[in-house]
C-alpha cells in the first residue's frame, strides 16, 4: 500500500517468505554482534554494514546463508524495478547496497530527521520482531511521520517547515516492510521509544525491536539510469547547513536578547569587589532583593571569592541548593501541582490552553517553553518570578559578574523550559559568536532517579577527567533504574568542516574526551558555563521511564571581561 497522507510512503505486509525470514532472524541472533551507540539523536544497538557481506571470509559467510539470500533479493533488479514503479522515485542502484540491522531495546529511540544524505533515494525498514509474540503498539517502537507546511523564507522562496507533532504512526510487525521516498526538507520521521514495562506489567519478557534498515541509492556509474553529476547535485541540495538555515525564521523560540546598559566599572573580583564599593556596586538594596530568592550562603563575600576563583580556573560552576529554602519550597509546590495535571496532546492546544509554547522544528528541538517578558496574567507563577524578576534584574547581573570575574553583563536571553517524558529533547547545536558567552541553567526538576546521589559533592569538585567519569556513572543505570536521559551536555565541536555528512552530529557517547561539561536533571542546582565558539550543547531525550518531567530555567548572557581579562578567561 502506498499513501501520501503525510508524504510518499508505503507498507507491504507480509513481504518475505515466512520460513526464510525466520531463518534470517535466527542467523542474526546466533552469529552477529551488536554495538550500543548513543548520541544526541539516537540510542540503538547496531550491527556492522551488511552491504559488506561479500567481504567476509567463506567461514563467516557460511553461517549467514539466509541473510545473504535476503540481501540479494532486496537489491535484485526485479524488486528494485517494482519499488521504483510503485514510488515513482526513479531507477535504483543494485550496486550501492546500504543496510544494517538495528535493535531497539527498552529505552532505545531515534529522534526526528529527514534521512537526506548524499545519494539516498528510498528508505526502508524490514521488521524482524518475534514472529510468535506479535508486537503490541503500546510497546512503542513505531515509525512516525511528520507533516510539513509550505511557508516563505526570507527571500520569498518556498520552504517546508515540519510540525512538532507527528501525523502518522506505523507500529512494527514481523515481515512488514515500511518505506518512503527521501525528500529534502520533507521526509521527516522518527522511531518512537521502545517503552519500559509499566508497574504491574511483565518485566521478564524483553521488548526487542529488531529490523533491517537501509536505503536504495541513485544508479552508480555504469548502471542503467546513471546520470552524470546527479550525485554531486543531490549532495549540494542536501547540505545540512542549507536545510537547517532557510526555515530558521520559523523556529521557536526565536532569540530575544535584551541589551544591558553599561554600569560603572567594577574593579577586583570576588570578596574584594563586594567589599570595596558595596554602596555603589553591590548595594544593600541589591542584597535584600537577592535574598528573596537566593540562598544566603551564596551572597557572602567569602563564598563569592571562592566561586570567582573556581570559575577563573575551570570556566564553570555547579551551585547546589541555589534558591533559598523558602522560595524553593514555593517552586517545588508549583511544579509538583503542574505535573499532576494532564497537558493537552497537540502543540496547538498547548499554546491555546496553557502558558507554554512547544519549541520547534522537531529535527532541532522539542520542549515546552516560556520566554522572559511574556507573563500573561497579573498573578505570576514562581517560575515566572524567576524568569521575569530575578534573572533579568540588575542585582542578579551584578552578582553574576562578580562571581565570574566579568566587567559587565552586556545582554541576556532567558527561557523557562519543561521537557516532557517520552517526548522532548534538544539536538546538538553550536555557538559561533566571536566572543565567549556565559550560559546558566537552574535545574528545577523535583523528581528523583536522574542520577546517582552517592558522593555527589566530591564528584562536583573533580577535575575534567573525573567529571567525565561522573557523566558515565550517571548514565549507568541498574536493572531496576533505567537510564532516563535528560542530562545537559557541552561537547567539543568537530573542527573538520568537510567531514562526511553521514556522521553529522554523531557526538559519540563512547568517546568521553569530547565532553567538556555535563549535568543531570536535578533539583535547585545552578550550573554556569563560559561557552566558546564551536562548542556543541544538547539536552538528551527524556525517556518515558523518567519519574517526572525535566524543568529548568536557562539563560544566555553576553559578557565583557575587559581587555586585561581576555587571556585569563580563554581557558575552555
UniProtKB/TrEMBL annotation:
Residues 95-218 form the Fe2OG dioxygenase domain. It comes from the Eukaryota. Its cofactor is L-ascorbate. GO terms for cellular component: cytoplasm; nucleus. Residues 467-477 have a biased composition (Basic and acidic residues). It catalyses: [ribosomal protein uS12]-(3S)-3-hydroxy-L-proline + 2-oxoglutarate + O2 = [ribosomal protein uS12]-(3S)-3,4-dihydroxy-L-proline + succinate + CO2; [ribosomal protein uS12]-L-proline + 2-oxoglutarate + O2 = [ribosomal protein uS12]-(3S)-3-hydroxy-L-proline + succinate + CO2. Residues 443-478 are annotated as: Disordered. SMART domains: P4Hc. InterPro entries: Oxoglu/Fe-dep_dioxygenase_dom, Oxoglutarate/Fe-dep_Oase_C, Pro_4_hyd_alph, TPA1/Ofd1_C, TPA1/OFD1_N, uS12_prolyl_hydroxylase. It is found in: Nucleus. This is uS12 prolyl 3,4-dihydroxylase. It comes from Aspergillus fumigatus (strain ATCC MYA-4609 / CBS 101355 / FGSC A1100 / Af293) (Neosartorya fumigata).
